[in-house]
Amino acid sequence: MGIKHFKTAEFDAAVAAAPLAMVDFWADWCGPCKMLSPVIESLADQYEGKVLVGKVNVDEEPDLARRFGVMSIPTVVFLKNGQEFDRKVGVMPPQAFSGVLDTNL
């Protein structure tokens, strides 16, 4: 499955169906987002079949970014059964994200 690139219309159903989801809010022009992208891709491979890993382009899906109160990017939001329970803002090492996932699997 890899990384799911979300559109607003499909977002709610997809994250509600997943017991655990990690969503990266990003943009093409964002340097730190580009730095974080390989980390997100690696985590998607590592947690394949256990965690829904998705990306939301804030320029293409501003309503989702607004709904989650994303003020700076990259912002990674963690959801359990469709409800946000944690978030990380900025570039961080993979362990910052895997720690949250491992604790909630």
In a nutshell, what does this entry contain?
The chain is α/β, with parallel strands linked by helices and 105 residues long. It has a single domain (3-104), classed as Glutaredoxin, CATH 3.40.30.10.
Tell me about this structure:
The mean pLDDT is 96. The chain has 105 residues and is α/β, with parallel strands linked by helices. The protein is globular and about 30 Å long. It has a single domain (3-104), classed as Glutaredoxin, CATH 3.40.30.10. It has helices at 8-17, 31-46, 62-67, 94-104; strands at 3-5, 20-26, 52-57, 75-80, 83-89. The protein has four helices and five strands. Strand 2 (20-26), helix 2 (31-46) and strand 3 form a beta-alpha-beta unit. The chain starts with a strand and ends with a helix. The protein has a five-stranded mixed beta sheet, with helices on both faces. It is 41% helix and 28% strand. The active site is at residues 30, 33. Pfam families: Thioredoxin. One of its GO terms (molecular function) is protein-disulfide reductase activity. InterPro entries: Thioredoxin (IPR005746), Thioredoxin-like_sf (IPR036249), Thioredoxin_CS (IPR017937), Thioredoxin_domain (IPR013766). Keywords: Disulfide bond, Electron transport, Redox-active center, Transport.
Annotation keywords:
105 residues; alpha/beta; Glutaredoxin; five-stranded mixed sheet; globular
> Structural class of the helix and strand makeup?
alpha/beta
> Which shape, going by the Cα principal axes?
globular
The percent range for helix content is 40-55%
- Cross-sheet strand order for the largest sheet: 1-3-2-4-5
Topology-level CATH name = Glutaredoxin
